[in-house]
Amino acid sequence: MRDQRLALTDRFGRVATDLRVSLTDRCNLRCTYCMPAEGLAWMPRDEQLTDDEVVRLVRIGVELLGIKDVRFTGGEPLIRRGLVGMIAAVARLSPRPQIMLTTNGIGLERLAGSLRDAGLDRINVSLDTLDPARFLALTRRDRHADVLRGLRAAAKAGLTPVKINTVLMRGVNEDEAPALLRFALEYGYQLRFIEQMPLDAQHQWDRHEMVTAQEILAGLAPFSLQPDSVSRGTAPAETWLVPGYVDAAGEPARVGVIGSVTRPFCGDCDRTRLTADGQVRNCLFATEESDLRKLLRGGADDREIAMAWQAATLGKRAGHDIDDPTFLQPARPMSAIGG
């Protein structure tokens, strides 16, 4: 039974129960808002956590620290060969956490059934455009059809509700908000628009060029969205009902907006993060990390690792301070942190 004294509580009383695990910093796309065309210097394999090390840290989080939700991310997690086995191992934990995955969808058509059989509960797929030519320009890869097939395969496998993550960029794809929502409604997917965040490897993010949550909602005015009476709790997305539509489960259709920059939800944050090389991060925008890999490989027992994780959580800041003039973008880009 979990020792309540080892909960991941920070100085502001927030308790982390949602674990994001980056499995790799590698990706098979080169999205313009994430990394340069030539890619990045990938993490050496010997620095990356092994499958067994990942599962052990997740187990410690679940059994000793009260983690209830586990989301595997990347880079692109589908290129991690041991993914299905790690999901199966986490699904056997007691208490069993909810297991989720965020992916770009390439390869999902082939893996969706195996992921579901292993114990995956839900999935988020990134899709920023419905135009194959625009997709090629955005990602520098001609894989648009693969993503659409992956979405269909996920729905067929029962990984519902299938969620779509979309980043709108000024002068690039901001005009597609209504079309993307109509697409999601037609196929029973749940769409989440996400404000572009300062996590690009090139450090070229410009707040003035970001499409804000308010602008996103204005672009969806033709749908006459209604406020959602269901509390968002600690979820990052504010949701609205789309009158006249239902989702794949027959529930009222919803669309979400994650306004990480202009409508931050830091006060309700319940997340803790592990990078692919075993570092604890308390925030996407953190500039500090705590090394659990060294403890793992140095022979520390589970409780010692749990206590180190707990101590790291105490350093979590009140907010990301993007609006502060002293804000510094983290050295790691999104691909090396995990969503």
Percent helix among the residues? 25-40%
CATH class: Alpha Beta
The number of helices is 10
The CATH architecture is Alpha-Beta Barrel
CA-based gyration radius: 19 Å
Total domain modules: 1
Can you offer a commentary on this structure?
- The chain is of the alpha/beta class.
- It has a single domain (4-337), classed as TIM Barrel.
- Helices cover 28% and strands 17% of the residues.
- The protein is built from ten helices and twelve strands.
- The chain has a twelve-stranded mixed sheet with strand order 7-8-9-6-5-4-3-2-1-10-11-12.
- Helix 6 links the parallel strand 5 and strand 6 (190-194).
- Helix 1 (51-65) packs across helix 9 (302-313), helix 2 packs parallel to helix 3 and helix 3 runs parallel beside helix 5.
- The longest helix has 15 residues, at 51-65.
- It is globular, with a radius of gyration of 19 Å.
